[in-house]
């Protein structure tokens, strides 16, 4: 029996670029290159490993995002995913996590799945809640923030390293999984993978395909509102000294002047 | 006055500091009603009352320890229905955020995560968030439903404000999905005796420049002289020199102490994301061009193996 794996991947502005907000206080996507959120590469990697272990499995990558978000799907396809689904609609601009999760949940149901795999957090919104929300919306177990994951005989097992303890988790499929950057290095696309990706199918869906009304998503339909965004003032230039043998003592002097010692 | 539900993060009855900070914030927008779940829940009441909880709703059941997240969501929802609060505040731990998010879906509300401040506004509580590795500060609101907001540690002072703190047992009926994810084993993290990283007033971190697990002893010695927590960069963690639970940054802990000391850390954007909001930043790095120096209040260009031990000695002698 085939194992259907859906991987949620987000297209985000490059964190090493000069990220900022547009006039409507949404993410400015024009000035900074976008890419597949690095933390979602770990989700793609674990999906591919699980698929390799299974007798028969299919990996679908799914994104909700603008036209350019196809680049993120191509990257995942070139790593080895089988096919892609892109939800794209002008009315999605400015959607918050409640709207995004609604769209993802409907697209996942439409695609069909046994397991959904997501990253631990996006590198732009960094909320780290979308997988839990998906589990709630889909009505299936959440097996989230795993640093180790495996699937066997319809059961997903994993290790979750929390604040106060490390836990071993277990749930029956269908389930929603999220993995951390401790789960294992993500593979680089091979040249063959990049060529093969060009021929893999990318299905495009819009809101009407998912029976979602425009006012359930987008800036207007958001459940949260951003009133202002201000750039943090650059820190005023600090004192920098070169250690000529007294660097530790000079630093202690500074700490004392600030009442830390 | 409107009631504000505050989710209590505690370990066997010992309330963690971020919850006490939440009580300070909750009092700015209403009267805090605390919800404490699991083993030792009722033991939290005294300290919660001292910090302003007018009521403490408690529940304990094996489900809280045996299954992941959902039983706690069921309980928080029961509290929500019993109280009809004006807002729900939850500490921004990984689990706290998941609990808050699932509750928000159930009650049809928007959610804001990782607030660093909170104040009353004309249209409900206004949250301050810090975005894009703390290079922007935003003000936002929940515009639909009852605001559900998670708040980062060190976002408010802990203030004593004695209140009734009457303990009431919360009746919880677990949903069908509560047993979906079983916790089959749990290994508690060993305590180092040092302050909790996210709660510490001073954090001393080491990076790739520390060059070996054994050398972390000099970072620890400095931390101990200052009563600080120890942090590490991902490079140091990936090399196996220090545990992942001490990683500071985007995929580690985010810290906002009074003083952050970075040794042998270059200051990559992902590291900055977790420490940029520290009040005072100090760095020791042998490369004068390291990006970390753009952030510092005080920087020493030098070899950490010379500077750090000298600093530790000086701190010890000054403290007597
Ligand atoms: C700086 C900033 C702050 C924000 N704060 C809030 C807020 O407080 N409340 C709010 O409601 N919204 C907020 N948003 C909007 C929110 O980020 C998006 O709606 C987003 O898609 C979901 O949250 P996230 O990106 O933080 O995802 P996370 O919860 O961090 O993502 C976890 C995983 O979910 C999957 N995923 C997330 N988004 C997508 C997608 N579009 N397509 C496919 N998979 C996806 C990925 O696998 C990802 O690794 C914020 C956005 C920004 C840029
Ligand atoms: C998706 C993603 C998430 C990430 N999350 C995190 C995260 O949470 N936290 C994190 O830290 N990183 C994270 N990173 C990694 C980050 O990009 C950097 O690689 C990392 O922070 C580098 O660690 P470092 O500064 O210790 O090492 P390096 O960048 O190698 O810097 C070492 C520094 O030590 C100095 N040095 C060397 N020897 C000495 C000496 N004897 N005395 C003084 N100075 C010396 C060098 O001059 C150099 O500046 C993430 C990366 C990605 C892609």
TrEMBL record, chain A:
Q: Keyword Signal, does the record have it? A: no
Do you know which Gene3D superfamilies this protein is assigned to? Answer: HUPs
Signal peptide range equals: none
Matching entries from SUPFAM superfamilies are given as:
Adenine nucleotide alpha hydrolases-like
- The organism is Streptomyces venezuelae (strain ATCC 10712 / CBS 650.69 / DSM 40230 / JCM 4526 / NBRC 13096 / PD 04745)
Chain's role: The electron transfer flavoprotein serves as a specific electron acceptor for other dehydrogenases. It transfers the electrons to the main respiratory chain via ETF-ubiquinone oxidoreductase (ETF dehydrogenase).
Gene Ontology CC: cytosol
What's the name of the protein?
Electron transfer flavoprotein subunit beta
Which key words are in the record? Electron transport, Transport
Cite the GO molecular-function annotations of the record.
electron transfer activity
What is the annotated quaternary arrangement, including any partners? Heterodimer of an alpha and a beta subunit.
Which PANTHER family did the record assign?
A: ELECTRON TRANSFER FLAVOPROTEIN BETA-SUBUNIT, ELECTRON TRANSFER FLAVOPROTEIN SUBUNIT BETA
Q: Which Pfam families match?
A: ETF (PF01012)
Q: Which cofactor does it need?
A: FAD; AMP
Q: Which family does it belong to?
A: Belongs to the ETF beta-subunit/FixA family.
CDD domains in the cross-refs = ETF_beta
Occurrences of domain Electron transfer flavoprotein alpha/beta-subunit N-terminal (ranges): 24-214
From TrEMBL, chain B:
Cofactor list: FAD
Q: Which Pfam families match?
A: ETF, ETF_alpha
Per the entry, the cofactor note is: Binds 1 FAD per dimer.
Keyword Lipid biosynthesis listed: no
- The UniProt record gives the binding positions of FAD as 208, 233-234, 247-251, 264-271, 285
Looking at the keywords, is Electron transport present? yes
MF-aspect GO terms: electron transfer activity; flavin adenine dinucleotide binding
Instruction: Tell me where in this chain the Electron transfer flavoprotein alpha/beta-subunit N-terminal domain is found.
Output: 4-187
Provide this UniProt record's keywords sorted from A to Z: Electron transport, FAD, Flavoprotein, Transport
GO BP terms, alphabetized: fatty acid beta-oxidation using acyl-CoA dehydrogenase
Q: What does this protein do?
A: The electron transfer flavoprotein serves as a specific electron acceptor for other dehydrogenases. It transfers the electrons to the main respiratory chain via ETF-ubiquinone oxidoreductase (ETF dehydrogenase).
Instruction: Please state which protein family the record places this protein in.
Output: Belongs to the ETF alpha-subunit/FixB family.
Q: How does it assemble?
A: Heterodimer of an alpha and a beta subunit.
Protein name, as recorded? Electron transfer flavoprotein, alpha subunit
């Amino acid at each position: 029996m085939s194992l259907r794996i859906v991987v949620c991947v987000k297209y985000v502005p490059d964190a090493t670029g000069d990220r900022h907000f547009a006039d409507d206080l949404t993410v400015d996507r024009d000035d900074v290159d976008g890419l597949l959120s690095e933390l979602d590469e770990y989700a793609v990697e674990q999906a591919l490993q699980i698929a390799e272990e299974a007798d028969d499995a299919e990996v679908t990558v799914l994104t909700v995002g603008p036209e350019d978000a196809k680049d993120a799907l191509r990257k995942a396809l070139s790593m080895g995913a089988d096919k892609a689904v892109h939800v794209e609609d002008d009315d999605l601009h400015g959607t918050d996590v409640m709207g995004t999760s609604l769209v993802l949940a409907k697209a996942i149901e439409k695609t069909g799945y046994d397991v959904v795999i997501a990253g631990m957090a996006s590198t732009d919104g960094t909320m780290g809640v979308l997988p839990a929300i998906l589990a709630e919306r889909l009505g299936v177990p959440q097996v989230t923030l795993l640093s180790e994951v495996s699937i066997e005989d319809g059961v997903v097992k994993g290790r979750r390293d929390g604040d106060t303890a490390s836990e071993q988790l277990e749930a029956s499929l269908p389930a929603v999984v999220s993995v951390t950057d401790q789960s294992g290095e993500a593979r680089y696309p091979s040249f063959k993978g990049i060529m093969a990706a060009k021929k893999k199918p990318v299905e495009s869906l819009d809101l009407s395909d998912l029976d979602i009304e425009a006012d359930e998503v987008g800036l207007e339909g958001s459940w949260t509102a951003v009133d202002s965004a201000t750039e943090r003032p650059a820190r005023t230039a600090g004192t920098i000294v070169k250690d000529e043998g007294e660097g530790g003592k000079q630093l202690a002097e500074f700490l004392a002047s600030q009442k830390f010692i | 006055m409107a009631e504000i539900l505050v989710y209590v993060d505690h370990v066997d009855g010992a309330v963690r500091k971020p919850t006490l900070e939440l009580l300070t914030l909750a009092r700015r927008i209403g009267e805090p009603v605390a919800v404490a779940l699991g083993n030792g829940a009722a033991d939290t009441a005294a300290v919660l009352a001292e910090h302003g909880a007018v009521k403490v709703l408690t529940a304990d059941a094996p489900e809280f320890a045996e299954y992941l997240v959902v039983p706690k969501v069921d309980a928080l929802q029961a509290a929500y229905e019993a109280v009809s609060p004006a807002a729900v505040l939850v500490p921004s731990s990984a689990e706290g955020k998941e609990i808050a998010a699932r509750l928000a879906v159930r009650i049809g509300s928007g959610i804001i995560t990782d607030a660093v401040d909170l104040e009353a506004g004309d249209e409900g509580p206004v949250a301050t968030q810090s975005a894009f590795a703390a290079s922007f500060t935003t003000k936002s609101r929940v515009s639909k439903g009852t605001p559900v907001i998670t708040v980062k540690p060190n976002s408010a002072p802990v203030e004593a404000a004695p209140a009734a703190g009457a303990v009431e047992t919360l009746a919880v009926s677990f949903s069908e999905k509560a047993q979906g994810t079983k916790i089959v084993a749990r290994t508690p993290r060993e305590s180092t005796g040092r302050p909790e990283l996210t709660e510490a007033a001073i954090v001393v971190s080491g990076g790739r420049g520390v060059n070996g697990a054994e050398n972390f002893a000099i970072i620890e010695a400095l931390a101990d002289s200052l009563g600080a927590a120890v942090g590490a960069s991902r490079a140091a963690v990936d090399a196996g020199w220090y545990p992942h639970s001490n990683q500071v940054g985007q995929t580690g802990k985010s810290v906002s102490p009074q003083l952050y000391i970075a040794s042998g850390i270059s200051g990559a954007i992902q590291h900055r994301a977790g420490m940029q909001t520290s009040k005072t930043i100090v760095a020791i790095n042998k490369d004068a061009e390291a990006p970390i120096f753009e952030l510092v209040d005080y920087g020493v260009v030098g070899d950490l193996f010379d500077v750090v031990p000298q600093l530790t000695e000086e701190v010890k002698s000054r403290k007597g």
